[in-house]
Design brief:
This protein has about 650 residues and is of the alpha+beta class. Among the domains are: about 325 residues, no CATH class; about 130 residues, no CATH class. About 60% of the residues lie in helices and about 10% in strands. The protein has 21 helices and ten strands. Strand 9 and strand 10 form a beta hairpin. Helix 5 packs antiparallel against helix 6, helix 10 runs antiparallel to helix 11 and helix 16 packs antiparallel against helix 17. It is elongated, with a radius of gyration of 39 Å.
Length: about 650
């Protein structure tokens, strides 16, 4: 779970492994294309795909826009970048090369301007692949003359195409730009927000259903019976001794009204206390096997975490947890009841749990956390006054019976006793109905006001957290830029370690896979991005393959677990891909002189797809984003043909690409 400041917390039982800490899909319209979208709109979405590292989808969108008449130098420039991005020359099919040749002939038809210049440079660099080193100076001058945006886009998307002295001459400045942009835009303080799930909306427990209607329906009959029996008793007493009966009646009325006034308060407070004590809660425990289902346990762990980190001054975390155990148990039951539904992760509710922990701390600081004491004092006083009034009422009733007995016959005395008994019974049931009706009316008013106030407070906290996330969360372009900077500097370090230059390389490829434990997130329609990556770089030279792998913490780009290995072309025996729907994609490298190595390229994600997303399309996006397609083709070719594949695909042996200027 995340504490809102970029720190993550998780717990695992003994002998268990933390794999995926959290995953989320942001419901954004960044890649949304309406079926009736214009070619211009499709082009813009295609450019966004390209900038965010999804060239396969960019090719489709921009090609569709061109096919529907939206074609100019700017559009064609981005189309060329999409065609060449994350691909080496040997990855291009014959049809794609023909389309590129056709596009190069169209350059002269476009209006002059910066985009036409950029398009010329892109095709010029493509033609330089089979040109002698001494002839690249003019193209490099034109490349450096472009705007920074066009210049950087060309270098980034043509990375696998540029080799030899051409790339050597650009590499230093490329690394300098990567070093500068690597931690730009406050990366370290913002990356965590990308993996934070979108919070679920605020909820609060609504008022319990009222039983006032049933109580009010029974009240007239019971009150009428009480009035009749009381009247009979008073008339009998009045007939026996009018003066005494009048005084006793006034005392009885006063005592009854007093008992009703204070009894209502006493009854209401006592019943509310009993209702709160009957609310469902689970006993406090710190073990994973606590009472309740899995969701409730996760809610409990989250409450324990946030209450232990939101502690008032003067309290130790364990003391605060013990002090608030009853309050916390009630809140756990409330949140579990409100949000227990399928596919709702506790991570989406953590904002509310954090808010409740902070609210408990703030109320303690104000002295209002346990406000029941004041209510208990009020209830005690009301109870005492009510009991005193009831005793007075009882004495008045006995006095009335005495008055009847002093001046009436046996029949009247028996009738008076029956009337007194009826008055006591009917008075009790009438009082019960009246108290319940008035109490329910009061409870509904109070609970409705509390519900509205609670919901409003939570709505404010929700909007505050959501706005903070929206302002903090990096864009797809920022995430892709940071990742590309990490890749560039990693490659540079590997080259320096092996004392290689780009002139020494035939080709290279880098495979980017998740490193456990990780958190992952993506924008709807986009690739998965991870909090921890494994970079695996393959440098292909005339002498063989040098493989370098490392793990990256994407938040701060810290590395660990570096591994290096070298092998000849004939040592790579075979390359296999295993696709398991509920597990993911595995790449298996089999060497003749060692055990097979399994590389998890991507984890399964079918359960995370939106209903309108195509599983095959999202898989293709993620595999392309990981560099899997190019890596697999390269390793498969080497495993099948050995050094013969290298000789056929050496940049110096490529067929010339003739750009039309």
């Amino acid at each position: 779970m995340n504490d809102g400041n970029g720190g993550a917390h998780n717990s695992a039982a003994y002998d268990s492994t933390v794999g995926i800490q959290a995953e989320t899909v942001h419901n954004s319209n960044v890649y949304f294309v309406h079926p009736d979208a214009s070619p211009q709109e499709k082009y813009k979405v295609g450019v966004r795909f390209l900038e965010d590292g999804v060239p396969s989808r960019a090719r489709d969108m921009i090609s569709d826009a061109i096919a529907h008449g939206h074609d100019n130098a700017e559009v064609r420039f981005h189309w060329v970048l999409a065609m060449l991005s994350a691909r080496a020359y040997h990855d291009l099919s014959t049809e794609e090369l023909q389309r590129l040749h056709h596009a190069s002939r169209l350059v002269r038809t476009y209006a002059e301007g910066e985009w036409k210049d950029a398009l010329r440079v892109a095709f010029g660099l493509l033609a330089m692949l089979s040109t002698a080193d001494g002839e690249i100076g003019r193209v490099l001058e034109r490349l450096r003359a472009l705007s920074p945006r066009q210049h950087d886009a060309i270098l980034h998307h043509l990375d696998l195409l540029l080799t030899g002295s051409l790339k050597d001459s650009l590499w230093t400045e490329n690394c300098e730009r990567a070093e500068t942009a690597r931690f730009g835009n406050d990366r370290v303080q913002r990356v965590w927000a990308y993996f934070e799930p979108d919070p679920i909306g605020p909820r609060a427990l609504p008022p319990r259903p009222s039983t006032a209607a049933a109580a009010r329906a029974a009240l007239p009959v019971r009150a009428g019976l009480f009035v009749v029996t009381t009247a009979v008793l008073w008339f009998l007493a009045l007939a026996a001794d009018p003066a005494a009966a009048l005084i006793e009646l006034l005392v009885a009325l006063g005592a009854g009204l007093t008992a009703a006034h204070f009894g209502r308060c006493w009854w209401y407070q006592e019943h509310q206390l009993k209702a709160r004590n009957r609310e469902p809660h689970f006993p406090h425990t710190s073990t994973p096997a606590s009472t309740g289902d899995g969701f409730t346990n996760r809610v409990r762990h989250s409450f324990d975490y946030y209450f232990s980190t939101r502690v008032p001054h003067g309290f130790a975390p364990h003391a605060w947890l013990g002090h608030t155990a009853h309050i916390r148990n009630g809140l756990i039951a409330e949140i579990a009841l409100l949000y227990r539904e399928s596919r709702i992760s506790v991570d989406r509710v953590n904002w509310l749990i954090r808010h409740l922990a902070e609210d408990a701390r703030d109320r303690h600081n104000k002295g209002t956390l346990f406000d029941q004491r004041h209510q208990n004092h009020i209830m005690t006083a009301a109870k005492a006054l009510c009991v005193a009034a009831l005793l007075a009422l009882a004495f008045a009733a006995l006095a009335l019976l005495g008055t009847v007995a002093s001046g009436a016959g046996a029949a009247q005395i028996l009738l008076a006793i029956l009337a007194a008994g009826g008055a006591v019974w009917s008075g009790r049931v009438a009082a019960s109905s009246w108290l319940e009706a008035r109490g329910e009316e009061r409870r509904m008013v109070e609970e409705t006001e509390a519900y509205q106030a609670q919901l409003t407070t939570r709505q404010v906290a929700y909007q505050k957290w959501k706005s903070f996330l929206d302002d903090t969360r990096p864009s797809e372009l920022e995430m892709e830029t940071w990742l590309n900077c990490d890749k560039t500097l990693f490659i540079d370090e590997a080259l320096r370690h092996y004392q290689l230059t780009w002139r020494d390389l035939i080709t290279h490829t880098i495979l980017i896979t998740p490193a456990r434990p990780y958190k992952r997130g993506r924008v709807k329609g986009g690739p998965w991005r991870y909090s921890r990556y494994s970079f695996r770089l393959f440098l292909v030279t005339q002498d063989g393959v040098r493989e370098v792998s490392t793990e990256f913490d994407f938040t701060d780009a810290k590395r660990g677990n570096d591994q290096r290995s070298n092998y000849r072309f004939d040592a790579l025996s075979s390359v296999q891909v295993t696709e398991r729907t509920h597990v993911g994609y595995d790449l298996e490298l089999v060497l003749t002189n060692g055990p097979a190595r399994n590389i998890r390229v991507k984890d399964a994600d079918s359960h995370q797809l939106a209903p309108d997303e195509n599983a095959q399309e999202i898989t293709e996006i993620n595999l392309n984003s990981a560099g899997f397609i190019h890596t697999f083709r390269l390793l498969e070719g080497i495993a099948a043909d050995g050094k013969g594949w290298i000789e056929r695909n050496n940049p110096n042996n490529l067929p010339p690409f003739r750009a039309v200027d």
